[in-house]
Amino acid sequence: MTGRAQGAPERVARGLVVPALCAFVALAALFWGLGGPVRLGIQLYAEQLLVSVLAATLAVCFLTRRVRRNAPASAPIPFLDHLLAAAALGWGGYLAWVYPELATNVFFRPTEALIVSTIGLVLLMEGLRRAVGWALLVILLMAAGYALTAGSWSGVFEGRSISPQRVVSFLVLDSAGMAGAALYIAVVIVIPFVLLAQLLLGTGGSAFFSDISAALMGRYRGGAGKIAILGSALMGTVSGSAVSNVASTGGITIPLMKDSGYRPQTAGAIEATASTGGQLMPPVMGAAAFLMAENLQVPYSQVVLASIIPSVLFFFSVFVFADLEAGRRGIARLSPQNIPALLGVMLRGWFLTLPFVVLVVGLFAWSLRPETAAIHAVGTLFLIGLVRRYDGGRIGIGTAWRVLVQTGQAAVEIVIICAAAGMIIGIVGLSGLSFGLSFFLVQMGQESLLLLLIITAVVCIVLGMGLPTVGVYLLLATLAAPPLVQLGLSPMAAHMFVMYFGMLSMITPPVAIAAFVAANMAGAEPIRTAIEAVRVGWPAFVVPFLFAASPSLLMMGTPVGNAMAAVSACVGVALLTASIAGFAAGPLALPLRLAMVVPGVLLLLPPELLPFAPLVYLLAAAAGAGLWWLSRPRAQRLGRAQGM
Fold first, then answer.
1. 84 vs 449, which has greater pLDDT?
2. Alpha helix (H) ranges present in 480-558?
3. Would you report the helix, strand and coil content of the chain in percent, each value rounded to 5?
4. Using 50, 70 and 90 to split pLDDT, how confident is the model at 379?
5. Residue 539 buriedness (CB in 10 A; 0-12 / 13-18 / 19+)
6. Does residue 297 sit in helix, strand or coil?
7. Does 537 or 634 have the greater pLDDT score?
8. Distances (CA, A) of 415 to 48, 126, 183, 557, 636
9. Bond prior to 283 in cis (omega within 30° of 0)
10. Disulfide engineering: 272 pairs with which of 126, 258, 261, 515, CB 3.0-4.6 Å?
11. Are 345 and 212 in contact (CB under 8 A)?
């Protein structure tokens, strides 16, 4: 009797409360994106919606994540976590109700403001610790600590100290704090795209992408690796999350690569690298891309346009690596029975391409806001799913409910991170830390812009250890991007630079979340897999420095310059990847590997950095082709020797 009584709250929490709160998160974003308040004649502040969604995600976090982060998800929910979830919902409901009056009269109701803010801050900090660990929480505490003690600093960091009551109230109640632009973008823009990704999975999209990849790439050398790359790129157009990309496509592609002959760490590295690159893949990139468009005050289409050449270079290099690694290890194509017919795949799943058509047309032809275009794509896919799924049948009420719940679950970390990042951004601006740090970095950059870029890249990777790209981008876009702009970089190049290196923390040791997840699925050693992922995705560590020096790689130059930079960079990437892999038309001896570096580097440099660029490119391409050809006789001699 007692056991049943104790189990009842657990069953209610897991089976009813958590799904209902997750569905509420998804439906709230849809309600706002569809203009629900205006259509119903309801006066609703955006902050009221944001606070309600944040409270729901905090409650879900407390009910699904234990105090000890390594505790299994199936562990019983302690009474404390039930209490914290109830406190989060009560706090969110009260603040959403009184927000319009309390936020405008905070100086006249200081006690109430302090109590509400303190409760909200404590809940958010604990939720943040459970969701993503200590890294972002420590940064938040450090920023708040500086605001409290700014008057005690000297030099460029000297400021005016802010009272504890003012700091706490600002963090939670001010529109430049918790419920600021970062949280707004997470709720209103990112969640509809997460919903689109979950609905695509619910209608068989993952299997459709895998089958298309197998049909297109299975007949070529190293087909399993190329299937993983193409499938992850396609899935990345909607998921925008490296870890979820690995989880959704890696279950199919990693065993396929291992069975075909790729080493376990190489299979995991290819999947992790391709999934990480999905955050760059137009037309839908990661959440950081939406934040970038908002920070730069430009249409999202401009961010997509700027990402085209970098994303092409990224995936082209991974394709080349998979092909050359297959040649070096003698990995053949897939067996014919494992290669579906492309026509059959398209006949079964052509309708799954329609949401992407709606999305692209909405973003670029109709100039719709990203969330509006995403909701139109969701509506299109939902109507299609009512009639047909890729694997047969159709979606029903149960599937639709699961999609809503999974969307809310996937949004928990994003919402909490963006709320905390909004606090950090707000307090950094209020305290004057952003000005002091910008001045310090500008002074450093005047001595050497390259040194500042290197330091920024290292900071992005270090801060990104254990954090999603969106959290790293939000911090560095506030602290590091402005000095780069002041020193002459275009705003797009500065923000893209920060986003790139924030993204690369997913595969960079010692903490490389995407690589570690892929390693676990591949049965490989995590650090070796992460090192291999860096080897596979090496251009992503170089290209940001190149587009920081020249706008051509961001489609910001002349059409001829953009085309020249793209083509030459692709050839340069192929030569340098061959040097790294140790294989071209055949195995490369060390002298040939070293020799290939020179034309590869020259071809990778943007035309603005080279005198007589067309002539230099032509000579470098000719030299690279000659070196590639020189590897053939060696391969033929090896082949004859093996035949004997």
1. 84
2. 481-486, 491-504, 513-522, 526-536, 539-549
3. 80, 0, 20
4. very high
5. buried
6. coil
7. 537
8. 15, 14, 6, 36, 57
9. yes
10. 515
11. yes
Q: Does the pLDDT at position 80 exceed 90?
A: yes
Is the pLDDT assigned to residue 501 strictly greater than 50? yes
* Residue 6 neighbours by CB distance under 10 Å: 11
Based on C-alpha coordinates, what's the Rg of the chain?
26
Distances (CA, A) of 377 to 304, 354, 522, 549: 18, 8, 34, 37
Query: Would you say 28 and 371 are in contact if contact means Cβ atoms under 8 Å apart?
Result: no
138-142, 555-559, 562-566 — most confident range: 138-142
State which amino acid sits at residue 641. A
CB atoms within 10 A of CB 410: 21
Taking a C-beta distance cutoff of 8 angstroms, is the pair 278, 546 a contact? no
Q: Which of 156, 164, 183, 209 is nearest to 56 (CA)?
A: 183
Enter the pTM of the model. Answer: 0.81
- pLDDT score of 141: 92
Cβ-based neighbour number of residue 639 at 10 Å: 10
- Which has the higher per-residue pLDDT, 153 or 73? 153
411 class by beta-carbon count within 10 Å (0-12 exposed, 13-18 middle, 19+ buried) = buried
The two structure tokens encoding residue 586: 């055949």
Largest Cα span, the chain: 93
**Highest-scoring range by mean pLDDT, 113-127, 154-168, 177-191:** 113-127
Name, in order, each residue with C-beta under 8 angstroms of 404's C-beta and a sequence gap of 6 or more.
Answer: 22, 23, 26, 27, 195
Average pLDDT over residues 247-266: 85
Q: Identify which of 531, 542, 461 has the alpha carbon closest to the alpha carbon of residue 268.
A: 531
Q: How confident is the model at residue 241 (pLDDT cuts 50, 70, 90)?
A: low
For tokens 């893949």, name the residue: 281
- Give the C-alpha separation, 186 to 420, whole Å: 12
Per-residue CA distances from 29 to 54, 183, 381 (Å): 12, 12, 17
Amino acid at residue number 378: V
Residue given tokens 């989880």 in the structure block: 247
More confident residue, 606 or 379: 379
* Per-residue pLDDT at 623: 94
Q: Which helix (H) or strand (E) element contains residue 464? A: none
CB of 578 closer than 8 Å to CB of 629: no
Token pair for 469: 């790209």
